[in-house]
Amino acid sequence: MHTEVDVPNPERLMMPGLYAEAEVGLDEKANVPTVPLQAISHQGNKTSVLVVNRDGEVEERTVELGLQTTTDAEVLSGLSEGEQVVASDRSGLKPGQKVHPQAMSVMQYQEQNAQ
């Protein structure tokens, strides 16, 4: 992730054009569900996702988001682990509609240890 950081330099020890590498620790939360960004709808101040309930019906669920990457977002509230979220063809679905969901594979980042 490219980031610009302003660093106080009153003694002028850092010269223009110098580069640095830094590690930034992000807040980690255990057992927080994530959803693909394409599953999220924003309308005014309302953020929602479509879920498929136990009866196979579409429900619109208001959610609160946490950290977001370029592909996914944490859902801090409004969604429970294991619920089925609609990630494609949202425009053709309406709350209350019966559907037959099909699971799709989700690629997950796995850190590789350098040796």
What key phrases describe this protein's structure?
115 residues, 7 strands, 0% helix, single chain, mainly beta, 28% strand
Provide a count of the helices: 0
Largest sheet: 4 strands, antiparallel
CATH architecture of the domain at 34-92: Beta Barrel
* Regions with little confidence, pLDDT below 50 for 5+ residues: none
What distance separates the N and C termini? Answer: 23 Å
The CATH class designation of the domain at 34-92 is Mainly Beta
Radius of gyration: 20 Å
Estimated share of beta-strand residues: 25-35%
The oligomeric status of these chains comes to single chain
SSE class = mainly beta
Pattern of helices and strands: EEEEEEE
Q: What's the β-strand tally? A: 7
Mean pLDDT: 83
Report helical residue fraction. under 10%
- What overall form do the CA principal axes indicate? elongated
CATH topology-level name of the domain at 34-92: conserved putative lor/sdh protein from methanococcus maripaludis s2 fold
Structure description:
The structure is a single chain. This protein is an all-beta fold and 115 residues long. The chain has strands spanning 34-36, 40-43, 46-52, 58-62, 64-68, 72-77, 84-85. It has a domain at 34-92: Beta Barrel (conserved putative lor/sdh protein from methanococcus maripaludis s2 fold). The strands form two sheets. Strands 2, 3, 4 and 7 form a four-stranded antiparallel beta sheet that branches. A hairpin with a 3-residue loop joins strand 5 (64-68) and strand 6 (72-77).
